[in-house]
Amino acid sequence: MKIAVLPGDGIGTEIVAEAAKVLGVLRGEGLAIELEYAQLGGAAYDASGDPFPEVTEKLVHQADAVLLGAVGGYQYDTLPRAMRPEQGLLRIRKSLGLFANLRPAVVYPELANASSLKSELVAGLDIMILRELTGDIYFGQPRGIRTLDNGEQQGFDTMMYSESEIRRIAHVGFQIALKRGKKLCSVDKANVLDTSMFWREVITEVAKEYPMVEFSHMLVDNAAMQLVRAPKQFDVIVTGNIFGDILSDEASMLTGSIGMLPSASLDANNKGLFEPCHGSAPDIAGKGIANPLATILSVAMMMRYTFARGDLAQRIEGAVRSVLQQGLRTGDIYQEGMKRVGTVEMGDAVVKALG
Ligand code: NAD
């Protein structure tokens, strides 16, 4: 398991250090894990003038998987767009051909009252949003701002999906559903958009290859509503880039704790980039109080999706559950009566729970 580790900026270095400890435990048990570090984002810009330098690109291509902390910081906000840390993220995704973005929204029973929804609606929630990451209106051409014949200016973008793009994300969706609750809901806007009508046609065709998966369609406006009305009805949701962008943020908020949410972006061979959903949290960077659990859970996803080691993923997830059951909480998930811990203490507790 050759893993490229990119701590990035802000709390990135702190939380990745804890995730690396978890990998260290597995290595100590005889698993052939190799970690190689490189820079991305603001740290890379500071060191080399480029948020995604060539050495980093070379390393991530050689690796089987990439573990990323987070990028970004106030001090970079005035840089030209091409030099900003977030460009490093976009470029690494593109360079690795990562087209499938997996964002689970899991509510641990211990944290059910952190959600803004009633705890009975979310307790035990375990859904997966699968977002297509490289197509759709975000990348369609032509786009721009033009001047019409009457002199008025007009902004425009192009929504488009090709058959091969829909097929490959559909297959990922069905495969994930097979590994979970065997339910897949495809979300689109087929009552209005031609792109969505075509999406529905193609994915329905692919569904025939997966008779063991319970397959359904839902319009995106309804899906947005159902996610807050009765989120537990879903298992896996597959959708395009723009709808997925919005729905995955909505779903993550069901959990009420951004410091708990991992994510994965995969290529066609399950090679992936694994990172927490949150950013570099410059407001708390360097204070030793960031929650490392989202990054540790990203390692669990790496084991499950890139290395096909669901057993190790479950072990890591079990260790996280165990520290929550012990009442340990970083500030972002703290509730009265619990034990407040810092980043390192939380990481150490997970390592201990891994046994
Ligand atoms: P953020 O996710 O960094 O922070 C939002 C809030 O959540 C902050 O109050 C922060 O303290 C808190 N928070 C986030 N992660 C936490 C954790 N692990 N433990 C405890 N508290 C946590 O979002 P933001 O403030 O909008 O963005 C900050 C920077 O991060 C920006 O430069 C932005 O561009 C970047 N960003 C990067 C990524 C990424 O690397 N994938 C994603 C989002 C934002």
Description of the structure:
The mean pLDDT is 95. The chain is built from twelve helices and 14 strands. It has helices at 12-28, 42-48, 54-62, 85-95, 119-122, 163-179, 194-207, 220-229, 241-255, 293-305, 310-325, 343-354; strands at 2-8, 34-37, 65-70, 100-106, 126-132, 144-147, 153-156, 183-188, 214-219, 236-239, 262-266, 272-276, 328-329, 339-340. Helix 1 (12-28) runs parallel beside helix 12 (343-354), helix 8 (220-229) runs parallel beside helix 9 (241-255) and helix 10 runs antiparallel to helix 11. With 355 residues, it is of the alpha/beta class. It is 41% helix and 19% strand. Strand 11 and strand 12 (272-276) form a beta hairpin. A ten-stranded mixed beta sheet has the order 2-1-3-12-11-4-5-10-8-9, with helices on both faces. It has a two-stranded antiparallel ribbon with strand order 6-7. A two-stranded parallel sheet has the order 13-14. The protein binds nicotinamide-adenine-dinucleotide (NAD). Nicotinamide-adenine-dinucleotide (NAD) binds next to helix 4.
State the strand order across the main sheet.
2-1-3-12-11-4-5-10-8-9
Total domain units: 2
The helix-strand sequence is EHEHHEHEHEEEHEHEHEHEEHHEEH
CATH topology (fold) name of the largest domain: Isopropylmalate Dehydrogenase
Number of strands: 14
CATH superfamily of the largest domain: Isopropylmalate Dehydrogenase
Label the structural class.
alpha/beta
User: How many helix segments?
Assistant: 12
Multimeric state? single chain
The best one-word shape is globular
Poorly predicted regions:
none
Q: Largest sheet at a glance?
A: 10 strands, mixed
Question: What is the alpha-carbon Rg in Å?
Answer: 20 Å
Helical percent range? 40-55%
Query: What's the N-to-C terminus distance?
Result: 21 Å
CATH architecture verdict of the largest domain: 3-Layer(aba) Sandwich
Mean pLDDT: 95
Which CATH top level class of the largest domain fits?
Answer: Alpha Beta
Ligand inventory: nicotinamide-adenine-dinucleotide
